Please model this.
Amino acid sequence: MNWSEFFSMGGYAFYVWGSYLVTLLLMGGEVVLLLRRRKLLRHRTRSSSEAGGK
Amino acid sequence: MFRWIVVRDLTLAWKGRVDVLSTLFFFLIVVSLFPLGIGPETHLLRLIAPGVVWVAALLASMLSLGRLFANDYQDGTLEQLLLTPQPLYLVVLGKVLALWLVSGVPLTLLSPVLGIQFGLSRNTLFVLVVSLLLGTPVLALIGSIGAALTLGLRGGGLLISILVLPLYIPVLIFGAGAVDASIMGSGVQGSLSFLGTLVVLSLVFAPWAAAAALRISLE
Amino acid sequence: MAGINWYKYASPANFYPLAGKMIPWFAIPAAILFVVGLYVGFFVAPTDFQQGDAYRIIFIHVPAAWIGMMLYVLMAIYAAIGWAFNARLSSMMASAISITGAMFTFLSLVTGSMWGKPTWGTWWVWDARLTSTLILLFLYIGFISLQASIDDPRRADRAGAVLAIVGVINVPIIYFSVQWWNTLHQGATIRLLGKPTMAPPMLAAMLIMLAACWLYSIAVVLARLRCTILEREQSAAWAAEAAGSPARQPSWGA
Model:
């Protein structure tokens, strides 16, 4: 398997790998943002109930 | 009751006619901006005229939507209207008719003058007027849904634009397409009949959706 | 199946733990299918005769476009059900879907553009499919903006439902008008965005990636739904328990 040929994608490396990089950024970003939101919420719910919430 | 609403809204519009005129001036100014931005070459202007006039009409229609429900909402009349035994569909239809008479029709009547600025032929001017005559009611009807949904929200006019402009796109395509066809010498019936279909569809569905949206916004 | 009371899961409080258990069942297969799909797409599928290796972008571009469209319809259905039956959870589901749907639609536009540049020379082309996808993105943005502007959650749910229903009815109209517009203005009949003739591994890779994106969407939407549930039900004791602190013991007076 000629790796350098593979990575150059027939000269279209920028477009092909660029597309998949954007894909990774968007999907990964979505997941990361969700995890952060969840962490924030759990923290907030926990502290509001411990601090004498309803 | 329907007639009462139309008359009432028309009277209010007359009282606030400065507002109404400014929509018209906005239309005029926006259309005039394009030659200033692009250059006075007649051939080019004739090509872009349908799109320019139609987009300006879209934007002007959208701006006029702020008057549709907002004033009545603020002074409490809208809530009263919701309580009447009359179907809300008719109330909405009446207000939209009044709005169209006051904004859409003047716009349509001004358009030939603007068309002349772009060097359009007499036939094309006629098609332009017809396309706007058919299209502006659709714009008002679809716009009423956006206006009803955004009652009392911050972000006002900008939010309505985001909601309503994508829905305006078919109207734009068929409206400008008809004028374009006239310039190119091809058949206008296709575009105009699609516009006609949109008129019928929006007359049937839009006031219903706007009424539902009003109830939701006023709960 | 008949013995389970499904209605109890209509309550956000009960659905929350169920959704939590479901997520791994979608996330892990999604990851696996992504790997498999990309492997088939890059190592098994041959180089295309006309487009060279640039065509390999379709393995993400086409699934993203389809998912974007399907999620919009799904969003409208959930929103409509939430409105018609006053089912909060259903409305929350619609809101959860909206962001993922918008993301995929945007992704399909970007990848479409990246595919277009080497294939027909420009970064953007106003062909029917790309233009319709752009308008779909506008529809998503409208829905998300509307819900973001309304503070009252129930009003946001219902207003979103009206907008989504109006949007979904308009989608065929918009699509038709864009097609018509495109054929009207097309000088030479260039078949733009033509997919390469599909050898079986290409089709297989695309379908696997489609399945992967679907599973990913379900997992991500469920996770977002759980966050929304937590946000809305914050004052409830069960939420505190779910977040991991012991529920306070009620103090019964003196």
Remarks:
- The CA atoms of residues 128 and 181 of chain C lie 8 Å apart.
- Chain C touches chain A at residues 42, 47, 52-54, 56-57, 60-61, 64, 99-100, 103, 106-107, 110-111, 114-115, 117-118, 216, 220, 223-224, 226-227, 230-231, 234-235, 237, 239-240, 242-245, 247-248 (CB under 8 Å).
- DSSP finds seven helices and no strands in chain C.
- The mean pLDDT of chain C is 87.
